[in-house]
């Protein structure tokens, strides 16, 4: 290719790069909604075999996703209530909140009872059902006990409407009666630990995961909280909600991106300046890498419609691997001296770069096979970025590096030669075999200590302050968002309610034994028609003798008009679910009804309350038709565990797939030597992780897959480049070490990430790349090394 052809190809590449950059800028900044996804649930894979269970899991996860819960605390009762009112008024003035609830509108507690009066004879508490079913039930005794009960300050029925207390007992079991929060001065209040706590809730006018909504809402909340705490001394505001977790995740990711990107950029820049002794190679290396990252970002958003925080942090680390291709080309230029010719240099490095690219793409392609959208996006990002960075070396750099460059710095070459000579001397012959055996013996205790941990919560590490505040709010108010729930399915709503009741009979022993606080389900608020008719049947013997009933009530002091009204109300009507769901009282609980499932059936949710082991919940649902325990974190953890177990097979498969490629290039007899550095690097990395008591996760295995690809790259670079630098021993290994150190400066920094999964990923790469880079001289025979 002539000079004109080089410039034409470079011009076309630059034009394509500009178009990709413009598209990426529009995708990231030119639309109403940012494609950066801070919702961690969005990147989790579907794990439920039952499609309705998957829908229910998503619905429950986002039921309160846009709600903010604030708990205003003060040792002084008046100040706590004043602070809550002030907080509510201030937040309601900001249109980032669709609604704010602090002060409740004045209402009569009897309004909560009135809808149930027509159904009073069909609603019985379990204790009353049991008592009425006994032959020795004494109505007169039950009536006397009810008449002599102390006055109720909560949701209490009038004596003339419920003389035996049956409806009252049923109401006492309802969620609003069990809640620690009680209306006081039109505020939902809890008195505890010598302090008053007042609940304030707000609903965002948008999504918690929208960057603009996050910033506006947090700014408003922070300002209002400061004002309230200033105006009402001693006030403390506890907060929880998806808004705060999403914002913390975004802040953590941004910190990681800045830390990894900035530190690695500075480190790589200083390293390249020291080795190449000129700013030109530095700028060219970063140009090539930047083009790759821009293309990778654009492709990720195009393919997935969004980009995850995990991918952004990973993308910042990709800098150290994508820069390898330009480093090898620029090293060839430096080593050629005055004989440099761009096209000849390109022919020299092309086989090595294509082999290296192929092995890297193989590792990332296997990563993309995992049914986990975040990992697939990381694979897409890496494959695109690496490919474009490599193509930029072929199409862009030759036109920009026409003149010869300074040779690599002498200290770097001398250090590399000394290290290469030492490793090569001990890696060959009988000494190599002995050292290999010793290393394996040292590794065995580490392998023996290896453990695994597939907990999905390792994906994130929410700030301790947020987790503490959520725990406090849950403990004080009883409010909380559990991740475990039962999906109850049936042919229609009646069968669903009957199956809920069967489940509740299994759950009650867990409550009685103290292993469970309770549960939230529709059947507890609207019994099945079968249960309600059975309740009427239990009361039938008492009402079959109206004169005797009148005698009991008259003897207890009831007026004749009230007695007549009571008797005329019998037998009443049954309460129907579809009618109850339309009442204001049902508003907080409507999300429990899944409705029709699209297959002629219906479904509902039952939420266990309290920290209950999954095994106990699973046992409670065993052999109950239509009842499925859905534990999303546990199911995702199981999925991670399954693919972690497969990962060793994938790693072996990757090695097997690389063998024919290397055999074609180097001959079958040399394949073990070429693969020895990455394979030993992986083995030693696993041993160190065992000694460090670092539990293995899917992310550790995915990192080992990349160690294989990167390590194979280094072996390829060294073998392909050695024949061209016979005049300057150590120069080729110096460029390999340069590539390795740039990778360590980027991927290794992930070990400091705020995300636990990325910390393990980074630590594994740090160890694996380090070991492999040191062992790479063993991949070249002594004759080839020092010819």
Automatic annotation (TrEMBL):
InterPro entries according to UniProt: MMPL_dom (IPR004869), Mycobact_MmpL (IPR050545)
Transmembrane segments: 6-29, 257-276, 282-304, 352-375, 381-401, 429-448, 647-667, 674-692, 698-718, 730-752, 758-780
First-listed, main subcellular location of the protein, grouped into a coarse class: membrane
Cellular component terms per the entry's GO annotation: plasma membrane
Topological category with respect to the lipid bilayer: Multi-pass membrane protein
Keywords from the named record: Cell membrane, Membrane, Transmembrane, Transmembrane helix
Keyword Transport annotated: no
Transcription regulation found in the keyword field: no
Domain Membrane transport protein MMPL: from-to ranges: 153-401
Location(s), subcellular: Cell membrane
Protein's UniProt name: Membrane transport protein MMPL domain-containing protein
Organism: Dyella dinghuensis
